[in-house]
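Q: Could you write out the predicted structure for this multi-component system? I'm mainly interested in how the pieces pack against one another.
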Amino acid sequence: MARITASVYTSHVPAIGAALDLGKSQEAYWEPVFKGYEFAKQWEKEQKPDVVFLVFNDHATAFSLEMIPTFAIGTAAEYAPADEGWGPRPVPKVIGHPKLAAHIAQSVIQDDFDLTIVNKMDVDHGLTVPLSLVFGQVDAWPCPIIPFAVNVVQYPVPSGRRCFMLGKAIRKAIETFDEPLNVQIWGTGGMSHQLQGPRAGLINREWDNAFLDRLINDPDALSRLPHIDYVREAGSEGIELVMWLIARGAMNDTDGGKKPTVRHRFYHVPASNTAVGHLILENN
Amino acid sequence: MSLDKPYMDVPGTTIFDADKSREGYHLNQFCMSLMKAENRARFKANERAYLDEWPMSEEQKQAVLNRDLNRCIELGGNIYFLAKIGATDGKSFQQMAGSMTGMTEEAYREMMVKGGRPVEGNRYTEEKK
């Protein structure tokens, strides 16, 4: 049977991708950011996941206002890095896992989560920046990826609670897949940031770190936090953090299992307009 | 019955909800069109003529021509869509975000390096008065 071995959480700031692609990762501004991901790169070489289930959001790239799916699972064989206005990032194409993705769609929809099924989608920095941060600059991504897009652009976005419960349903789906796969689930976006209006540039270090503490120790209670708290405390774009609750909900301890081990935790301000957070939890 | 919108009293912040999305539909879809190189070229060649191809309000068109992102947001624009105008102009996301704060580019960048805008005094509109 397939199983989720670990969850990885990371911000997906576009400027991080640009810094990598333009060879600026050694600059004083960026060095501390990339240093925070050295552990993940080494750890992934040991973990050798068979599949990554990657929760992210599209930023008006694949989805315009023509269609706004709340939860969309990618069931395609492959996905091209998107041209977001300055040419596609020079990163490998993303290979999917249609068989597992279709299985998860079947199971999760039967579990009352109405997913949108996507068979054609270009993937933007929301998906490719986490891959670059965690796997490094490689010629091919080391494993297939299942992209899972969440609407966090147009309100109302799904609640933290809904995301957390969805994570549980995804875990159940993966554990009923009849192949011995080592699956990781990643939650991306955040941490505190606001990109619009006179309040742009908002960062809340204290709140972000409390969020990390609660995500580790009490995700059930954290999942009940209303949207307005994210907006007020972590900025209008800080709402992306609800996506971390999908990955957290998929860990064993949310369903009677043992608490996960914290393998790595990192926090840094700033990357462009954003606070960068990164966490690795291993199932026990 | 009115809808629950608890986010109306956050200072300097407009939440892009279903109502805003309805108001800004054509403005945002115009922005989306700038994802294509040929459309960027046509827009740059004659901004007014390109905008006139879209059923946007005159206020929306003027806000785009003036690159007034705060006004664009007021009129239903969303920052991830408006970012396509910035990309067309060769602006970074930080330059765009900074342009909405009334700060110079250098001052905004400096604020971010020093840890960003503090949340104290920035939670409720009444705190700003």
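A: Regarding packing and overall arrangement: Residues 92-129 of chain B form one domain.
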